[in-house]
């Protein structure tokens, strides 16, 4: 009988991983040139980047004018300026010159510390609110959603504690965009939850009210709501008794966002299996307990993308207030094109790129945070 | 009516009565609402005395161009307003308070401007608004002083070699849609038996860009606008504004009607600017001119002892002096905002004084 048992007494030396798995070349092969179609698409994409990116970088940064007192620094010699003929580039000097106006509108320049203080308070309250590790969320929420708006109102509008009164027509720029969005978000989420619950309520009056409100508001364009509030309402009021235009826009934006938010949340409520409701009932929870402890936490978690989508949409929709002569960021940028001190062929494009970039910053920030919250609340129901 | 005095009603009659009562109630409510609205308007019309209101609140609320029309009403980076329309607001404030800073500006869009004036949100509208019959009558405003005589014109590339709008036969013309500009354009070409190709755009920015990119031979809008659009062209010197003006656009200040005292103050503030230019009074020499021997000038500047011009307007006797100190005379204001002292470089043209071939004419101040 021959001995056939075999015991390995030493390990094989490790082979190098195959080229296709380890090296940069392998990565490129796997991800960019795995098939003929992939290869073609990669080449087209590279060609597009090579074609568009350098001119864009050149226009935005290298050829751009960064500082200067007036339009002559952004004009070529033929146009009556200082630059060589044929020049084209971004005129950041104009954004630089107008920056305070783009941020705060016509807010009195000697009072700028007031909006700046409000921004500082907002950041100081918002960041601990957003970071899950920071304790005392309840106190933080009360400060952010109840105390902060009151303090901000007093600080911005003034008229109390020796602060000079700054009327809302002087407000403008990013400040208006942010106030409209913050108030819209802060009101629309709770109002939307109430409306969504109302719509699914068994009480006929509550249900009818919720359905009427939602369908009426959703059936009308925001422009119409703003127009009604700004143009028609004053004609019915006694001269001098005008409700502040800014307040009217705030109310318009808030009720509009609430109606959309209600439908998003209703989507979440309907996705909760009936068993959850019945289980809560079986435990003897009342309606309030059932909703706050069982249904809403699950429902809202499901529709976070929808909620953030509505927030982002509303943030951008605030630009519509321009048509009722209130100047948000986009409105004030566009209005500045008419300033004869800065009229040049490149001014409008530069201004719009700046406004677009600021909008993008905020929307991208909201979108990233929502992705983070989704991951954090994920309890692996993913299918 | 108490029920017991009624004949016993049949059930059908009863129902009719009920319906009738409901109908009457509805009518009453509607009538009350309409009545309240009408009374609101009526009350404001009856007691309209904007001058006293303005004096009481201590500032003039002036409706201006929110989309910033270069040279007429625009905000600089520090947030200060400047322009020809703005100067009228300042002149009115200077006349009333002796202080041109007592103005609050309400930036308005083209759609918003009329309701803002009707509702009393603003005291006067100085937003490059064309004086027309329907605005004067149907909208319930009053116009009088014309601060700028505008009209629709054409801009072409110099290389076309066109010297007159009558040579534009067959040209493609960039124009903004839905404006009177578009209608005027069609009328003009038809009445001169010329062909043209309209290239129509929704927004003015698009039309500017298209003309700049060479998509059409000519561009048409109000002449004052053409000059500011020319500054946005890649090579402003390649373009010229043709001499023909094909429509009348007298731009002036509007106030609510049935308020003559206020209309007087606003229009005579403008006339004071024009008269000052005619007399040769400038921002710099106004103090000297007070000592002038010319009785017209002395009366105008409130230096004649028995003159009551200021008091009759409801203004201080040195109202004209304050206006000129604040904004200069009409010529100075024009050159600073839209003329040679500004990037627009618009010629005086129709806006020269009447004795220099223009239309700016102030009635005698005496």
Automatic annotation (TrEMBL), chain A:
Q: Which CDD domains match?
A: TM_PBP2 (cd06261)
Q: What keywords are assigned to this protein?
A: Cell membrane, Membrane, Transmembrane, Transmembrane helix, Transport
For this protein, the record's InterPro entries field holds: AA_ABC_transptr_permease_3TM, ArtM/GltK/GlnP/TcyL/YhdX-like, MetI-like, MetI-like_sf
What NCBIfam families does its record include? HEQRo_perm_3TM (TIGR01726)
Molecular function (Gene Ontology), one example: transmembrane transporter activity
Organism of provenance: Mycoplana dimorpha
- List localization entries: Cell inner membrane; Cell membrane
What is the protein's given name? General L-amino acid ABC transporter membrane protein
The record's comment on protein family reads: Belongs to the binding-protein-dependent transport system permease family. HisMQ subfamily.
Automatic annotation (TrEMBL), chain B:
Pfam families linked? SBP_bac_3
What GO biological process terms does the UniProt entry carry, in alphabetical order?
amino acid transport
**Keyword field:** Signal, Transport
Domain Solute-binding protein family 3/N-terminal residue range list: 59-289
Q: Does the keyword Zinc apply?
A: no
Q: Where is the signal peptide?
A: none
Which SUPFAM superfamilies does this entry report, sorted A to Z? Periplasmic binding protein-like II
Domain of life here? Bacteria
Classification via PANTHER family: AMINO ACID ABC TRANSPORTER PERMEASE, AMINO-ACID ABC TRANSPORTER-BINDING PROTEIN YHDW-RELATED
Q: Which family does it belong to?
A: Belongs to the bacterial solute-binding protein 3 family.
Name recorded for this polypeptide: General L-amino acid-binding protein
Q: Which organism is it from?
A: Mycoplana dimorpha
């Amino acid at each position: 009988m021959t001995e056939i048992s075999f015991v390995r007494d030493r390990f094989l030396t490790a082979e190098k991983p195959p080229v296709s798995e380890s090296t940069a070349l392998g990565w490129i092969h796997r991800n960019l040139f795995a098939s003929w179609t992939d290869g073609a698409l990669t080449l087209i994409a590279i060609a597009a980047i090579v074609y568009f990116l350098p001119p864009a970088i050149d226009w935005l940064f290298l050829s751009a004018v960064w500082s200067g007192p007036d339009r002559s620094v952004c004009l070529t010699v033929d146009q009556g300026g200082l630059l060589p003929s044929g020049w084209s580039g971004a005129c950041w000097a104009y954004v630089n010159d107008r920056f305070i106006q783009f941020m705060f509108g016509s807010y009195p320049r000697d009072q700028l510390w007031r909006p700046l203080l409000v921004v500082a308070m907002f950041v100081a309250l918002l960041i601990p609110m957003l970071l899950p590790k920071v304790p005392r969320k309840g106190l933080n929420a009360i400060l952010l959603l109840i105390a902060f708006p009151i303090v901000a109102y007093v600080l911005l509008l003034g008229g109390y504690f020796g602060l000079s009164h700054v009327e809302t027509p002087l407000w403008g720029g990013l400040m208006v965009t942010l106030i409209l969005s913050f108030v819209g978000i802060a009101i629309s989420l709770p109002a939307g939850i109430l409306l969504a619950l109302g719509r699914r309520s068994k009480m006929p009056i509550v249900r009818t009210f919720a359905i009427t409100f939602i369908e009426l508001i959703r059936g009308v364009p925001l422009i119409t709501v703003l127009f009604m509030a700004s143009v028609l309402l004053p004609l019915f009021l006694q001269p001098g008794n005008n409700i502040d235009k800014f307040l009217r826009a705030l109310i318009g934006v808030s009720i509009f966002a609430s109606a959309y938010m209600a439908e998003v949340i209703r989507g979440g409520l309907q996705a909760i299996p009936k068993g959850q409701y019945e289980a809560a009932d079986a435990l003897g929870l009342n309606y309030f307990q059932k909703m706050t402890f069982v249904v809403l936490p699950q429902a809202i978690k499901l529709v976070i993308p929808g909620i953030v989508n509505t927030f982002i949409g509303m943030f951008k929709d605030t630009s519509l207030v321009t048509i009722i002569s209130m100047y948000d960021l986009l409105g004030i940028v566009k209005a500045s094109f008419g300033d004869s001190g800065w009229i040049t062929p490149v001014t409008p494009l530069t201004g719009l790129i700046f406004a677009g970039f600021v909008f993008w910053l905020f929307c991208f920030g909201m979108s990233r945070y929502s992705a983070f919250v989704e991951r954090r609340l994920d309890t692996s129901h993913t299918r | 009516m108490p029920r017991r005095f009624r004949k016993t009603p049949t059930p059908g009659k009863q129902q009719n009565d009920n319906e009738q009562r409901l109908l009457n109630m509805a009518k009453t409510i509607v009538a009350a609402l309409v009545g309240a609205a009408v009374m609101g308007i009526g009350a404001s019309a009856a007691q309209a005395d904007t001058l006293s209101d303005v004096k009481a609140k201590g500032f003039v609320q002036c409706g201006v161009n929110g989309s910033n029309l270069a040279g007429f009403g625009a905000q600089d980076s520090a947030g200060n307003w400047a322009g020809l329309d703005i100067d009228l607001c300042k002149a009115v404030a200077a006349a009333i308070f002796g202080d041109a800073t007592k103005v609050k500006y309400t930036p308005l869009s083209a759609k918003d401007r009329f309701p803002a004036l009707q509702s009393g949100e603003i005291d006067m509208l100085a937003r490059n608004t064309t004086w027309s019959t329907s605005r004067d009558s149907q909208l319930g405003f009053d116009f009088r002083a014309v601060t700028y005589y505008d009209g629709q014109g054409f801009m072409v590339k110099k290389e076309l070699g066109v010297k007159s709008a009558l040579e534009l036969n067959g040209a493609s013309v960039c124009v903004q849609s839905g404006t009177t500009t578009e209608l005027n354009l069609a009328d003009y070409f038809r009445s001169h038996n010329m062909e043209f190709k309209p290239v129509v755009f929704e927004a003015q920015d698009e039309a500017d860009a298209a003309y700049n990119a060479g998509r059409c031979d000519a561009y048409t809008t109000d002449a004052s606008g053409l000059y500011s659009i020319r500054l946005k062209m890649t090579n402003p010197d390649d373009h010229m504004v043709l001499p023909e003006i094909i429509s009348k656009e007298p731009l002036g200040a509007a106030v609510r009607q049935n308020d003559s005292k206020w209309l007087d103050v606003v229009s005579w503030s403008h006339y004071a600017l024009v008269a000052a230019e005619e007399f040769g009074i400038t921002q710099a020499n106004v103090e000297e001119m007070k000592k002038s021997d010319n009785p017209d000038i002395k009366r105008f500047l409130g230096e004649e002892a028995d003159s009551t011009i200021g008091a009759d307007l409801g203004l201080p006797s040195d109202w004209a002096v304050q206006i000129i100190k604040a904004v200069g005379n009409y010529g100075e204001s024009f050159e600073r905002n839209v003329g040679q002292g500004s990037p627009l470089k618009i010629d005086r043209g129709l806006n020269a004084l009447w004795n220099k071939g223009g239309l700016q004419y102030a009635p005698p101040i005496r």
